[in-house]
Every structure is written in C-alpha cells, then in structure tokens.
Amino acid sequence: MMLSRLTLGVAILAALVLFMSGSGTRFGLWPFQTGFLLLKWAAYFGLAAAAVALVGLLAPKLRAGRGLWFAATLTLGLAVAAVPAYWMQAAGKVPPIHDLSTDLDNPPAFAAVLAQRGDASNPPEHGGPAIAEAQRRAYPDIRPLVLSLPPAQAFARALRAARAMGWEIVAQDAAAGRIEATATTLWFGFRDDVVVRVAPTDGGSRIDVRSASRVGVSDVGANAKRIRAYLAKLADSAD
Question: Which of 51, 209, 217, 223 is the most exposed place for a label (fewest CB within 10 A)?
Fold first, then answer.
C-alpha cells in the first residue's frame, strides 16, 4: 500500500510542477528559464511515477488490491510527461527562429510597441536574410493576403480581426494602414508583438503581418500559427 500511495504522490507532484511551470512564469514569479526547468522536472517525475506504476501493475504481488492506485498513477504520470514531450517534439520540427513576416523583403517595422517591450531579450529589428531564408524553408505558406477591397475597408476588417484574436491593440492608424498589438500566449504568458500593414494594390489591398517573440530563440511555431489564424479569420470575414 505504501508504494502505491507514494508513486501516486509523485505523479500528483509532477502535475503540480507542470502547472507551476506555466503559471509561475505567467505571473512573474520567476523567469521563463526557470519555467522551462520546472517543465523538464515535471516530465522526469511523471515518467518515474509511471515506470514504478507499470512495474506495480505487472507484478502480481505488488498489484494485489492496489491495481487501481497503480493504474491511476500510470495514467497521470504519462499525461503529465506528454505535455513537455509534445513541446519538445514540436520544437524539433521547426527552425530556431522567433520572428515571422509575410513580407520578407520589407518586413513591417515595430514602432508603438517599442515602449512596452521593457527588457525583452530579442531585438525589435528583423533578423535579416538568414532568418528570412529559414522561414521560407519551414513556412512557405506564410504569405501576404490580398483582398478585393479598398484600403479603408480592408483596414477596418483587419482591425476587427485583430480584436477577435484577443490581441491587445497598442496602436491603430487607418491613414497609414498600420495596426500594432501584443498577443499573450496561454501557458507561459509570453507577450509577443504583432504588426499589421494594409497597403493598396492592384484591384484591392494587400495585408502583411509580422509576429515576433520578445524572448526565446525558438517560438516552437507559435508565430506561424498566429499569423495563419489571423489571416484565415480575415479571409473568412471577407466572404
């Protein structure tokens, strides 16, 4: 009985560490590096508890009368370990970049959000040709959106779509065709900067979007997902 309770306790501890890794970072209790370290230890605790629980289920003497305890521990331990494992797998599939733009020749520049970036470790300037080439290889679908609308109407729709995304609108300038915003990630609460540019083009308007992380080398694909979601929402609203 002691072993089954102990392993379940370790699995519960792993779940708590997993929760703390994100919530503590989100609320500023520690830097994101500490959050990543806690995430790693949550996986270790979860896998250790699951391994012992599996032995307990396979060994008749250990399993007798305690099968449900071990089964619960195995399930919880693997569930906790699956979260960091998923992120590690996702990180391995994308290049270590954190700044994406639909216009790689002339990425929209940040202006209004600069005052809010604080001690962000990543510079606001685009990384240049090397980053652009890495994006082209990994995200060939990140391209401008052309709407058959005059710029004023396209800007209004772009602004509505940005608000629908839940972004914090920092600045909006219809005359210049610019929207600057901040997006906050769900788990760690990372604040990423977004700029939308609306420009006239033949027969309508061209929408360019740039999304960049303030910290971290790799965004694990977050900025690409954000740009895709935004452009999809904008395209749907134009139907």
Answer: 217
CB atoms within 10 A of CB 61: 6
- 232 & 154 share domain: yes
- Show contacts of 103-108: CB within 8 Å, 24+ apart: 103/144, 103/197, 103/208, 103/210, 104/132, 104/135, 104/136, 107/210, 108/178, 108/195, 108/196, 108/197, 108/208, 108/209, 108/210
Quick one: tokens of 10?
């370790």
- Residue pLDDT, tens place only, 94-114: 999 999 999 999 999 999 999
Query: Do residue 210 and residue 172 come from a single domain?
Result: yes
- Cα–Cα distance measured from residue 188 to residue 182, given in angstroms and rounded to the nearest whole number: 15
Other residues' Cβ atoms within 10 Å of the Cβ of residue 82: 12
Could you report the per-residue pLDDT of 40-72, keeping only the tens digit for each? Answer: 999 999 999 999 999 999 988 777 777 888 999
* Residue 141 sits in the same domain as residue 223: yes
Q: Are residues 202 and 128 in the same domain?
A: yes
Q: Which residue has the tokens 């071990």?
A: 70
Do residue 79 and residue 187 come from a single domain?
Answer: no
User: Is 174:155 a contact under the CB 8 Å cutoff?
Assistant: yes
Distance of CA 121 to the CA centre of its chain: 17
Q: Are residues 76 and 169 in the same domain?
A: no
Which residues neighbour 37 within 8 Å (Cβ) at sequence distance 6 or greater? none
